[in-house]
Amino acid sequence: MTKTALITGASRGLGLELARALAADGWRLVLTARGAEALDPVAAELGALALAGDVADPAHRERLAHAVQDGLDLLVNNASGLGPMPPLADYPLDELRELFQVNTLAPLALVQATLPSLRRHGGTIVNISSDAAVEAYPGWGGYGATKAALEQLSNVLAVEEPDVTVWWVDPGEMNTAMLAAAVGAEEAGAAPGPEKAAAALLRLIGERPASGRVGVR
């Protein structure tokens, strides 16, 4: 029986590489990202359903939930923003609220919207986190705080939803546009490509260990 996965932030980076890995493994895919120009070619390449939009938008989340209402085996909350990177003493609070909306509240809201489908299929939730959630890096306080909150939400969700597997995943440093924006293209270029983490995630999905925090490399 064909399994269905919903992946956010699927037009580039880890989301794109995981979509490719799952498609090669025979999964049906529902993919979303903000820009249709980047997302539509990916969907065409993989034979997937593309629904472009902002996961922070309730109407878009409703469309995504409707697309998987017949059953969902895997939800990957990969879409994320970096936000500004000043010291916390100077962090603009309006921008921090917006970052929490994208990185923490939107993933939880999408979980809430798709839980009926996930419960029916004994599905899996993958919330992509970061070592910035557990380590103190100067300049990473805003982003790290949103990921730390996402990890604790995942931790509690795993206890409250015993019929659904929940992993909060630290994929490590990857050569992505987000990392390049944070540390520069030269330093980001020294990191492994996201396809390595995607392959590790595919193995994890196949093995399906118990809920928990997972580092994939």
Automatic annotation (TrEMBL):
Keywords: Oxidoreductase. InterPro entries: NAD(P)-bd_dom_sf, Sc_DH/Rdtase_CS, SDR_fam. It holds the Pfam family adh_short. One of its GO terms (cellular component) is membrane. GO terms for molecular function: oxidoreductase activity. SUPFAM superfamilies: NAD(P)-binding Rossmann-fold domains. Belongs to the short-chain dehydrogenases/reductases (SDR) family. This is NAD(P)-dependent dehydrogenase (Short-subunit alcohol dehydrogenase family). The lineage of its organism: Bacteria, Bacillati, Actinomycetota, Actinomycetes, Streptosporangiales.
